Amino acid sequence: MPGVHLDMTSHNPGKCPQCGRKMNLSPKEQMKAEVTRIYVCPMQPDVALDKDGVCPKCGAALVEKKHRK
To answer: E strands of 1-69, at which residues?
Structure first.
């Protein structure tokens, strides 16, 4: 497939540094993402934790991030 950079990998979502296209998770990482719960702060987009609680920056209640299928 032209334009696909199979050598570009990442454990985090994002864009390909070569072409700017959205990177997809590997099947293994997709399975892990589906069973792992991530809690995010609705007020601080950079806060994401693996347990429920309060935001360490602002004290707002964390909410579970829904996985897109």
So the answer is: 39-40, 48-49, 63-64
Model pLDDT for residues 10-69, shown as the tens digit of each residue? 666 677 777 888 877 778 877 877 778 889 999 998 999 989 999 999 999 999 987 655
Name every residue whose Cβ is closer than 8 Å to that of residue 4 and which is 6 or more positions away in sequence.
none
Using CA atoms, how far residue 57 sits from 2, 35, 38, in Å, is 44, 26, 17
pTM passes above 0.85: no
Which tokens belong to 9?
């990998």
Classify 32 as helix, strand or coil: helix
Q: What is the CA radius of gyration of the chain?
A: 15
